Amino acid sequence: MITFLFLNEWRRTRLILPCISVLGCMVFAGGLAHGGTATKTDSPEKPSASKQSAGGATASEATAQTPTYLGDVQPIFMANCARCHNQQTRFVYNWLDYKTAYADRWEIKRRIWDSWKGTYYKEAMPIENSPESLALTDDQRLTIKNWVDNGGIEGEARPQAQSNASLSKDEKIAIGKRLFTACAACHQPTGQGVPNVFPPLAGSDFLNADKHRAIGIIIHGKQGEVVVNGLKFNNSMPPFPLSDQDIANVLTYVYNSFGNSGLEVSAEEVKSQRAQ
Questions:
Q1: Domains in the chain and their CATH numbers?
Q2: Is the pLDDT higher at 71 or at 261?
Q3: Is the entire prediction scored with pTM above 0.90?
């Protein structure tokens, strides 16, 4: 009787195991079909702006309708990701470059949207509780998700609404304050910097001594040692792909904040410095 029960259970196991194996293969194949994405070797296809969302995002979810890289996504990366993802870093991708961001777009979506929603197992980006993560809004995350789902369109940079000649100093300061989020991750919202790492902008003798040098640093970036308020700092600052007007605005804000000299910077000064 015991032998019969054992054989019966063994036959039943032989029937169940193949079923489990087939079911597992079906689930795995379905996952590949649903989650298959382009690899890092993809080249930008310049897809049509009318392409429908691959992720099923509804019209009510879309931010800026069909987001583009230059118009919507690159400004977010500059403000929240450039401390790590810039052209000077060696071990992470430069998301300020369209071709690189396009090739890495699915991983960007997974880290910025799926991990944050709890549907991707790798660490969310920006790192939780970092200044960049705290500054990144729900709408900005959704814009990046929709950009990927709609084909990673490059698009064009948004035109400046006003020329330098028509902006008052107060207007430059107001616009520059919004742009300063790209600087605040390192230099802090208070302009105090990070001791021994990032120099302060508040009451900075280095900054106030030469505004043309400050313009050049934003345009070209800077590596190596600097001495600010008597303290040495040795780090790197990436160049930021900002327009002449944006650089004028953000520097005017910095010069008129944090106890600095109150200088005003014009787009013409930035243009001249860029030409050099």
A1: 69-149 (no CATH), 165-275 (1.10.760.10)
A2: 261
A3: no
